[in-house]
Write a structure and sequence with these properties.
With about 375 residues, the chain is of the alpha+beta class. It is built from twelve helices and twelve strands. The C terminus is likely disordered.
Amino acid sequence: MSSRIETAEALVADTQGRTIAYECAGRYPCFRGASRAALKDCFERHGFAASGARFDTTAENALSEAIQRYSRVAIAKYSNPRSASTLSVTEVPVEAGHARAWLVESVEKKPGERQPTRTPGARIFLSGDDIYAAPPVDGPEIPACASVARELRAAAEWLQTTADTTVVSRAMTAAYSEAGAFPWINRGSYVAAEGRPGTARLVALITELRSTYYDNATRCGLRLSAVPIKSGEEQSVQALVDAVLDEVSGKVDRLVGKLRDESERSNVRASTYATRRDECQEVLAVISQYRGLMGEWGERFERFASDAAGAYNAAVSGQSLELPEWAADYSSATSSEEADAACPVLPAAPVAEAPATVEPEPSEPDPFAI
């Protein structure tokens, strides 16, 4: 579609008589999580028990997922940029069938040595269904390592009861499949034919999720829509406007990410700058096409893309690639990707004491000796 779109009516025209289950690539802006139990109950009440089972988890799965998804952010948070050492989280073997365990280590690379020196500073492990952050078995606790361990433990406990963006996306994808909906790739949505078994249940599920977990004023939360696409209906228009806004914000997000990365590098080719400049122009063309739908968001996105295009154009002509003033703190405010990569905001809670370490007999190695 190349013509300028001033209203959503032109978008509505080719979809009449179908139902969009709107998800837009699984991005739930500003979403900070909701009760797993409440979400599972909602899915089950609408006949999606198999999809609702995606909200079930165990302490082991929650800890493993917390470490996979949040350890990089936690390490960056507690690392000292002036220090020669870095931090790492490493899974270590456990014995006698005990649960999994990880070490948080201080890693120091010394001149003239191939292998860095790794010093255990804290440990994270499972005992039964409980998650612990504790000092290493041998040697003193390192404060930065202990902070990382405690944060990952808290994130894991949060994930045991709270469904964040990733968990909700998995459950929704399963629900679309259960209902027989199929992706409408061009606009990041799902389409379910009216009258098809499962469509009515899907519409009811998505309607309740949006009503319960979305704030229209801030465009934050579980922004799903399931509406018949009909000319003149506000819900149809809003669903399509949301899709357009998310598509454009995603393009701008990726563009600014590349600009940030390449402004810090000295080995970027001039041809790459030219390619990026062309990408900026393509984004500006999309913004122009849908300018009438986006209101103030369109003005913001147009400014971001224009400034990025100017920066790349200057770089093509031989100048250094300079970040616009706004780029360092850029956030589209429509994407949850950065928020989902960061550790969740957790309530203050006392840290459980690790089980006492009992000196084992020589023939019985300590199962927690990492």
